[in-house]
Q: What sequence folds into this?
C-alpha cells in the first residue's frame, strides 16, 4: 500500500487495542451458546484484531503474529472440528450434529448438547477467523505494503 | 427505546448515506459506510435484534471497512489505457 507518511503511534495504538479485541472475541465464542453472539461473530472479532495489526504494521510485523501460510491449515482445522463433532454423532448412532449422542462419559444429554454446541462454535470461530485473514492476505498480495 | 433517540439516529443514518454517495474522495466514502453500518447496528439493537445488530457491528463496521480501504488503495481513479 502507498503510505504518505509513517508514524509509530498508529502501530502502538493497534498493539494496545488488538489483544483486548481478541480476548473479547474468545469471550463471545465461549459464551455463544446461551447469549447473543456465537462462532461467526467471535471469529469475525478475532479476524478484526489480526487485521488491525496487519493494516497498522505492514507485512513484516504481520508475519510475526500469524504467518500467511498458516491461515489455510487453521481454516481446515476449524472445519474439521465442526465435521468431526457432527460425524462422531453419526458414528454413535444418532443424526448429523446430534449432540446428545457424543461419547463424553459422565454427562447427561442436556449437558452433552450444551458442550456440543460449544465445540462446534470453537470450530466455526477458527474457520471464520482464518478465512477472513486469508481474504485480506490475498487482496494485498503482490503489492509492497510495508 | 426512546423515540427521540431513534429519530436522531435515523437522521444521521440518512446524512451518512447521502454523504457516502455524493462525496468525491473514496476514503471518506468508506468511513461514511462504516458510520452507516454502526448506526444501522444501533437501530437493530433498538428494535430488539441483538444478534443481528452484533453481526452488523462486527462485519459492517469492522472487517468490510478494512477490506474497502485495501481496495481503495489498490485501485486508481483514472484508468491507464
A:
Amino acid at each position: 500500500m502507498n503510505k504518505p507518511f509513517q508514524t509509530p503511534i498508529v502501530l502502538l495504538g493497534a498493539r494496545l487495542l488488538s489483544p483486548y479485541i481478541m480476548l473479547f472475541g474468545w469471550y463471545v465464542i465461549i459464551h455463544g451458546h446461551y447469549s447473543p453472539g456465537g462462532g461467526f461473530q467471535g471469529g469475525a472479532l478475532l479476524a478484526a484484531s489480526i487485521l488491525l495489526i496487519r493494516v497498522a504494521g505492514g507485512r513484516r510485523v504481520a508475519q510475526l503474529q500469524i504467518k500467511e501460510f498458516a491461515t489455510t491449515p487453521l481454516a481446515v482445522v476449524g472445519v474439521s472440528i465442526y465435521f468431526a463433532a457432527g460425524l462422531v454423532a453419526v458414528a454413535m448412532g444418532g443424526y448429523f450434529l446430534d449432540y446428545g449422542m457424543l461419547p463424553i462419559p459422565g454427562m447427561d444429554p442436556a449437558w452433552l448438547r450444551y458442550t456440543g454446541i460449544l465445540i462446534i462454535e470453537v470450530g466455526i470461530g477458527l474457520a471464520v477467523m482464518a478465512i477472513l485473514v486469508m481474504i485480506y492476505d490475498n487482496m494485498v498480495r503482490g503489492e509492497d505494503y510495508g | 427505546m426512546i423515540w427521540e433517540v431513534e429519530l436522531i439516529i435515523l437522521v444521521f443514518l440518512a446524512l451518512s448515506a447521502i454523504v457516502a454517495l455524493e462525496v468525491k474522495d473514496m476514503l471518506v466514502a468508506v468511513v461514511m459506510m462504516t458510520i452507516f453500518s454502526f448506526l444501522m447496528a444501533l437501530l437493530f439493537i433498538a428494535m430488539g435484534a441483538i444478534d443481528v445488530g452484533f453481526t452488523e457491528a462486527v462485519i459492517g463496521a469492522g472487517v468490510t471497512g478494512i477490506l474497502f480501504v485495501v481496495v481503495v488503495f489498490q485501485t486508481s481513479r483514472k484508468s491507464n489505457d
Observations:
- Chain A has a mean pLDDT of 86.
- The two ends of chain A are 7 Å apart (CA to CA).
